[in-house]
Amino acid sequence: MRRSITIILVILRKEFLQIFRNRGMLPIIFIMPFIQLLILSNAATFDVKNVPFHLQDFDRSSLSAKLAEQFTGSGYFRLTGESFGSTQAIGELVGRRADLVLVIPKDFERDLEVSGSAPVQLVINAEDGFSAGVIQGYTSQIIADFNREHRALFSAAGAGRVFPEIRIKSSAWYNPELEYSHYMVPGILVILVTMVGLFLSGMNVVREKEVGTIDQINVTPVRSTEFIAGKILPFWIIGLGELSLGLFIARFVFHVPMQGSYLLVYLVASIYLLVVLGMGLLISTVTETQQQAMFIAWFFMVIFTLLSGLFTSIESMPHWARNMTMFNPVRHFVDIMRRVMLKGSGLAEISRPLLILCAYAVAMLSLAVNRYRKVSA
Amino acid sequence: MADAVIHTENLTRKFGAFTAVDAISFSIGRGEIFGFLGANGAGKTTAMKMLTGLLRPTSGSASVAGFDVRSEPEKIKQNIGYMSQRFSLYEDLSPKENIRFWGGIYGLDRKTLREKSARLLEALDLQEAADTRLSSLPLGWKQKLAFSVAQLHEPKIVFLDEPTGGVDPVTRRRFWDMIYETADNGITVFVTTHYMDEAEYCDRISIMVDGRMAAIGTPDALKDEFGVSSIDDLFIRLVRPTPIE
Question: How many domains is chain B partitioned into structurally?
Fold first, then answer.
């Protein structure tokens, strides 16, 4: 046992020497992830703002002008042009100079005054279905506000009467300001830790194969478990360091709250890193060149990220895909991070995904140790 | 051979239908310098891999340093040193760091390592370069260092796989001085080479042809036996049995 620990430390020391001596590697470990964190967390947003907006006001009344003003004044829409021919508006949509066209027909004001209702047409560019949905949400809200303000005034029947009204006031729990970054940062942090861990460990053993030092290692009495442990430990330490820096940025740059305990986050991360590093070493032992290892690592990275629930909600995936995400370690860690950081979930609440990660870690490590064979059959 | 440190009997390795090593039997004694010759693809590397515990034999048996290659490969590894044709120290580490790593892997404690490291660097005249990266040292120095590193744990046998490839004759000669010194200390040296002048330096040599051992003996005895004047001629005769007219 004592001998094993000494040998593991010898490997650990050597790995650290090599990592810190590799000028190409250092920026990948320490700079790239944080640039990504800063850029992605700020840029990857579902908020729809500054939608280019085209107006066709055939009524040209004071009321139609008021409606148009509510659109432009809402902050969501930016008026890019006005026209009066029906083909022009389509040209604007096709040319992507507008994503929303508001058509106010002639006699809008008169109809509203006389009958209490008047149609308007909204044409929304739905290439991107998600944004179109959000735009539609905004427009109905603006029109509802407009109605509320003017209904009493112009309804012939309702002059002087107070209309009963149901107002829905919603409050968002666990992310009260609906800060998009609060939701994204914990998840992106997981991706960064995963990426660095998977690539570093995935490139590692295969590099020793490429330069030939693996033969030299294999003629020594070092055990597979010692070798794998010595290889995992440095990246495990780097991974946790990376997470710490990330959490620091989350707290002081993005002001993401930490409702749960940091201790729990680190506990989960230590187990999670074993999964990722075990997987990386497994890739490394079954490949012959760094390119092969890189491609396989990318393959898994892309699938894991897309099926992680980071950008798209898992609940809206088809049934089979939802089942598949259960085998995705990234999904579980993203889930746990959000729950712990935003909701303050404790060990009991996250025990299920945590157990899955534990099982995964055991499986990956035993596979990696097993696949790394010093003696060829 | 009474005190044989390597002993094989009908050692065979097949890869599918191809027989890379075909029932070779030989013994090598303590402190002997044994030259393992053969054309490329004759099965030298495969045989060496079996003897160093990297590859399991298909049939036959072999013992190295008193341990069976099939059942005790890890015990063999504690007792052998190895230096391969692909230069096998870490180029991005310094000589000192390499010594520390490889010694540590064999379980040498810090104090022993420090002493050995100092002695070794002095013997190789590498004190000034002790902390520079290996990649900036000349190949000859790196090979000498690799040979010394392979002996840090005081093995009974060192396996050298084309140790002098790519260096000049003077450096080669100095390397062989080191080999003699090692053998004088009672360590067996098992060496493969393509240089026929080096074959003459060996106590005994063997020549492999198509997986079989075509000749084995002292260089002089073999020259007499086959009626040739040099190992070079012997090699060409065995590897290409029908002389080109």
Answer: 1
